[in-house]
Amino acid sequence: MKTRALVLFSGGQDSTTCLAWALKRYQHVETIGFDYGQRHLVEMECRQTILKSFKESFPEWKEKLGNDHVLDLSILSEVSDTALTASREIEFQANGLPNTFVPARNLLFFTFAATVAYRRDLQVLVGGMCETDYSGYPDCRDDTLKALQVALNLGMDQRMVLETPLMWLNKSETWDLAVQIGGKTLLEIIRKETHTCYKGERTTLHPWGYGCGDCPACELRQKGYESAEIAKQS
């Protein structure tokens, strides 16, 4: 029985929801974040605020939360040319993908996370990838991550499990899942403390959270919030 998990925790809405999901299921949960030269580096600052809020607001989770790991993957911004790692206009490319796509980012994240998990005896890797509401990133697809799980287990002779609890949820359902897990307390933490905006904007608090309001990440977050059950009840 797998009881120890490592959550890919960026400080955004999806990974924060996944962290809460993991804390409800596993006895010991650690977190890992990556500094890869992202334009919205403010998310790294949000991570610590969220972890502190979790411990203060959910005492039953405090004892479960273990080490937080942060890895320097700044080389990723050096070898990629994207609107997520440089100050560029967000637009679609000739191949149909948005230029916010950082090639192989999630593959590298899970690979490095698996390396840490191997050393820490953590049997489950949890990520917030989603194939229902996403920007067309191929490394968010279910088939991609299932294939990666096979490769990682063969390459390390392990039986780790890659869990993606949001894979088949839209953003509205992700908001509602947070409320199911942690009620309005968790909802408020996600609304006020998490960061999703690609431009790193945190000066304006909207009903759905901080952000510029016009980048793809903000538009998706706003649309999901406004159609979620919790918004309809307020």
Task: Explain what you see.
The protein is built from nine helices and seven strands, in the order βαβααβααβαβαββαα. The chain is of the alpha/beta class and 234 residues long. It has one domain: 3-Layer(aba) Sandwich (Rossmann fold). The strands form two sheets. A five-stranded parallel β-sheet has the order 3-2-1-4-5, sandwiched between helices. Strands 6-7 form a two-stranded antiparallel ribbon. Strand 6 and strand 7 form a beta hairpin. The chain is globular and about 45 Å long. The termini are far apart. The model has no long low-confidence stretch (mean pLDDT 88).
Low-confidence parts: none
Strand content: 5-15%
**Number of helix segments?**
9
Task: Supply the helix-strand structural class.
Answer: alpha/beta
Averaging pLDDT over every residue, what do you get?
88
Assigned CATH superfamily: HUPs
Q: Give the terminus-to-terminus CA distance.
A: 40 Å
Instruction: Indicate the percent of residues in helices.
Output: 40-55%
CATH class category: Alpha Beta
Annotated CATH topology: Rossmann fold
> What kind of oligomer do you see?
single chain
Globular, elongated, flat, extended or rod-shaped: what is the shape? globular
What string, H for helix and E for strand, traces the elements in order?
A: EHEHHEHHEHEHEEHH
Number of E-type strands = 7
Largest beta sheet: strand ordering: 3-2-1-4-5
Number of domains: 1
What's the alpha carbon Rg, rounded to whole Å? 17 Å
- CATH architectural label: 3-Layer(aba) Sandwich
Biggest pleated-sheet summary: 5 strands, parallel
